[in-house]
Amino acid sequence: MRLPAGPIDSFDKHSKFYDAKEFSTHLNWWLINHGDIFTRSEAIALKQIVRFSTKVPGVCNEPIKSMIDAIHKEYIGQSISRSTFKRLIRKTRSIVMLTSYETFEKNGAQSNNLYVFNRYPL
């Protein structure tokens, strides 16, 4: 699916949650049942995606580089690699915890990916 790039507010229709509390509840269910598949570094990366998914609950369009830089700053010099971040995305997509979409600028160039958390299947 080709989505136009834009500010996070323009992606609110992609959110599958009513509010941050509901998002947190579903995230906890995902982690209780599937949290053991993530390495320590992947768990740190997931935590960062979740932090950037609060303005629109469950939706993040922050560039991977920005999230890695934030991790580097928070963990004082320790960081994770881009490949770890990509591996996390693959794992979350494989269990259907996360859906990712490519966004494109008006000139056709690829922009940030859009990451959308899915509800936990009850």
Task: Summarize this entry quickly.
With 122 residues, the protein is of the alpha+beta class. It has helices at residues 20-34, 40-51, 64-74, 82-94; strands at residues 2-4, 59-60, 98-104, 110-117. Helix 2 (40-51) crosses helix 3 (64-74).
| Gross geometry | globular
Low-confidence residue ranges: none
Based on the structure given, which CATH architecture is correct?
Orthogonal Bundle
How many β-strand stretches? 4
Widest sheet: strand ordering: 1-3-4-2
| CATH C-level class | Mainly Alpha
**How many separate helices?**
4
Largest sheet: 4 strands, mixed
Radius of gyration: 14 Å
Strand content is 15-25%
Q: What is the residue-mean pLDDT, rounded to a whole number?
A: 93
Helix fraction bin: 40-55%
In terms of structural class, how would the helical and strand content be classed?
A: alpha+beta
Query: In angstroms, what separates the terminal alpha carbons?
Result: 27 Å
Named CATH topology: Arc Repressor Mutant, subunit A
- Tally the structural domains: 1
| H/E element sequence | EHHEHHEE
Layout of strands and helices, then pairs:
Blueprint: E1 2-4, H1 20-34, H2 40-51, E2 59-60, H3 64-74, H4 82-94, E3 98-104, E4 110-117
Parallel strand pairs: 1-3
Antiparallel strand pairs: 2-4, 3-4
What does this structure look like?
With 122 residues, this protein is α+β, with helices and mostly antiparallel strands. The chain has one domain (2-117): Arc Repressor Mutant, subunit A (Orthogonal Bundle). Helix content is 42%, strand content 16%. It contains four helices and four strands; from the N terminus they run E-H-H-E-H-H-E-E. The chain has a four-stranded mixed sheet, covered by helices on one side. A hairpin with a 5-residue loop joins strand 3 (98-104) and strand 4 (110-117).
